[in-house]
Write a structure and sequence with these properties.
transferase; nine-stranded mixed beta sheet; glycosyltransferase; alpha/beta; Spore Coat Polysaccharide Biosynthesis Protein SpsA, Chain A; about 325 residues
């Protein structure tokens, strides 16, 4: 389908995934597009992953290994990105895997449409590779091109998760190098998705779910909601500010409405009677309110956002109930 004269660098952060890493790497080695630079970033784990990475590097010259002190997912991705020498770059999480023709189809489509980023749907699967039907009903990405503003707008749609993840994309390296992931933060993709799309003049979608997203019982994504997840508010607040400053006022206000709903919804998910939890929640509500009032001074806000904000301040428990039972 596509000539293999241009190198794709694939960055794989590796940490405590010895049960999954071989499946991930094998899916890369079996790609029909073989001109790959596979960068395994050992993030300082104390299991067998460092040794497994080194063993793979001995077997295939396309594999490079970076051993580093533990710094988290963002730090590992950034290290791999800095070491990449390809014209294109992709990220893949080390407990996931991809179809054999993933990069062949992505680079072909990206080049055919002269796009800066290609993004595909993904399929949620179990540890054993079985499709999780209820999570794969509303794949959002279509076979078409999207403007930067369209892609950013999709980050607050009902199926936004297909647009926010860093690993179901292929980037031109010049785009990838402009954005670093925030070290020490969870929800790192929420902090960066809009920045990637804003740097791109054109994004091309691929409806086929080329990426296999493995949902593990003990993964970050399946753990019970905790106060640490509230950093998501900071991520979306940053996104709102960015939109308002870059002429995307309508999109920014959509995110503001989204954030008011989110803060309403999570109130009852937290142990709000715990003093530290309540203080942290209140801190993020104040962060939201500061941005809300600064936008309200310059723009007319819709009734839903104003009503949700009023309830957040005066009746947070009722607001949470309404969000979960009525506005879901």
């Amino acid at each position: 389908m596509s000539r293999e004269d241009e190198l794709i660098s694939v960055v794989v952060p590796v940490y405590h995934v010895e049960t999954y890493i071989e499946r991930c790497v094998e899916s890369l080695l079996q790609q029909t597009y073989s001109n790959l630079e596979i960068i395994l970033v050992d993030d300082g784990g104390d299991d067998r992953c460092p040794q497994i990475c080194d063993e793979y590097a001995k077997k295939d010259a396309r594999i490079k290994v970076i051993h580093k002190k533990n710094g988290g997912l963002s730090d590992a991705r950034n290290a791999g990105m800095r070491a990449a020498s390809g014209k294109y770059l992709a990220y893949i999480d080390s407990d996931d895997y991809i179809q054999p023709d993933t990069y062949e189809k992505m680079i072909y489509t990206l080049k055919k449409e002269n796009a800066d980023i290609a993004v595909c749907n993904y399929e949620a699967v179990t540890d054993q590779g079985q499709s999780i039907t209820e999570k794969n009903q509303k794949m959002d990405i279509k076979d078409r091109t999207y403007s930067s503003q369209e892609a950013i707008s999709n980050l607050c749609g009902p199926n936004y998760h297909y647009w926010v993840t860093a690993w179901n994309r292929l980037y031109k390296i010049k785009i990838a190098r402009e954005i670093s992931f925030p070290v020490g933060k969870i929800h790192e993709d929420e902090f960066t998705a809009h920045l990637f799309y804003d740097k791109a003049e054109k994004i091309v979608g691929i409806s086929e779910p080329l990426y296999k997203y493995v949902i593990r019982e003990n993964s970050i994504m399946t753990k019970k909601y905790s106060v640490k997840n509230l950093v998501y508010v900071e991520a979306v607040n940053n996104r709102i500010e960015y939109c308002m400053e870059h002429g995307l006022e309508e999109v920014g206000q959509a995110f503001l409405r989204w954030m008011s709903r989110y803060l309403m919804n999570v109130y009852d998910k937290l142990d709000i009677k715990d003093k530290e939890v309540r203080q942290t929640y209140d801190k993020y509500v104040e962060m939201y309110l500061k941005l809300y009032h600064s936008i309200k001074e310059k723009h007319k806000l819709d009734t839903e956002t104003k009503a949700a904000t009023f309830m957040l301040v005066h009746t947070p428990k009722l607001a949470s109930y309404i969000s979960r039972k009525i506005l879901k």
